[in-house]
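Below is how a single chain appears once it has passed through the pipeline. First comes the sequence as given, then the structure the pipeline wrote out for it. We keep one example in the README because the format questions we get most often are answered faster by looking than by reading.
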Amino acid sequence: MFGYSGKILRVDLSQETVTPEPLPEALIRKYIGGRGLAAHYLYHEVPAGADPLGPDNRLIFTTGPFDNTNLPGSSRYLLCFKSPLTGGWGDANAGGSFGRMLKRAGYDLIIVQGTASRPLYLLATEEEIALKDASHLWGLSVGETTERIRFDYKNKRLQVATIGQAGENLCRYACVINGFNRAAGRSGAGAVMGAKKLKAVVAFGNLETKVQDRTRLRDRIKELNQYIREDPGCQVLSTHGTASGVGPYNELGMFPAYNFREGYSDDITPLMGETMTDTVLVGREACPGCLVACKRMVQVVDEPYRTNPVYGGPEFETIGTLGSCVGVYNTQAVAKAHERCNHFGLDAINTGLAIAWAMECYEKGILGPEDTGGLDLTWGNEKALLQLIEDISYRRGLGDLLAEGLKIAAERTGQGSDYFAMQVKNQAFAVHMPRAKVGQGLSYATSNRGACHMQGMHDETIEAGRLMSSIGIDKKFKGISRMSKELKPEYEVIAQNLRAFQDSLIMCRFICWDSGPITPASLSELVRLITGMEEHTTEQLMHLGERAYNLCRLFNAREGFTAEDDSLPGRVGESLPRGVSAGSVISPEDLQQMKAQYYRLRGWDEQGIPTAERLKQLDLAEEADMFGLK
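Resulting structure:
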């Protein structure tokens, strides 16, 4: 088929075998790729109750049909697995060149199963597929591993997706990083790789991806690139990166500080993208085919915060979790903390909020010096921040507890510390204040992978009047306050379905965000130009997204998740003390009412489990039968 290699690479680490197999066209048409396709394989192949760190779990590297076409925003890959962090559905995606190179090697998916008896890495090229000994790489950081493999093969174009020490030591939110600084960060993929003793996946190839209409696609790419050159939002991302949002979010009272107690900081200036551009920025990187070049390369030259620029620079999320949420307002210290997370292979969101929770426990006397190994966890202690990042990676002292994730850490610690453990399903909040954007709070609660800012949409979009009528976000949503509960269940159902099909195509959010440059309608056109599949209209793509979302939800239900798990921590019901969003809350009653309406719109029962009728409407009758729904 156009847009696909039509091949899966099946890797059995227990048997140390690597076997290509065909990717059925029927599954391509049903799921298109990415999240939907991986959900099918995980649901059918991972037994209910399987240990996420055991041999029965699967780790799926998947590309999309747009990869390797030079379409802006398409050079990405998605990792899907049973999460060791949440115990349910896990996924994480990253940009850079790894996904593109995997496609050039001739594979749409890699499915990894079993557990190796020794450290291994997978080599996947168009000329060779093999499992290689990785004993000499075990114990190395992300950067050291990448450099060593490229040196061994005398090929700097090799793309290496690897874990660092955090993954080896089974930190539940360890991530997989490719290209030194592109992190597949959420849900604990790095811990799955570590448990399987798979140190890295190495991809290289020169194969072309055949498309249905190359001429028209080339014209559309030119049009999109011109839009990117002229669009103010894209230009701000090019100039200051995602950190360009820090100042505006703070002014709106929704940039979290001090473990989400506040949404406004008096002196946010050191954490703003403009400040980084003026002080530590040394370069910009772009994913292949993209003109935005949002990736920051920063360098601090002075000790104690000297950094290696290959690890990139702080993003919007890491500035919040490793900066304001722990009371650190020092550009250089945040840059160093970001570098340390990428060096060890840690998800910076979960890491920062685990440390923020520990600092609040220290402030309240729940944790003392005897619990912290003598570390002073006073807010803003930069030295303690950096030390805990290393301790989490090696599971030393307090770091061993924090490596379990916020929910588990709070349960073990007790004393009411769950009230301010900012997590859903053990996944830490992203740096978006749900009290200041209520739909985001509902999305956090109901997301299949736990608190997630990437699987729903953001309330400020409709507050600003930006609509997408082609998918049902029409004039009735226009101008609704981000702090209002009105229509938010309907908004998030549409948003989550949209994100699910975007993740099946595996497209960058910055290129196909809420209003462009690549709209839902243009995505359906691009599917036809690349794959030739005429049936995938905008309506059908949204239906496909709903199918994928429901299958992931069914995966969670099979693992025992119910409506009780669609919750928010107590702090979300606490009034914001100051700033533009002061006074806004999501009370338990608010959440319950929104959830009930959300479940009805989804066609789920009162426990948030998809009904057999709805699943059959989504062509998931076989999966409903497997679950036992009638």
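The mean pLDDT is 95.

See the next section for the split statistics.
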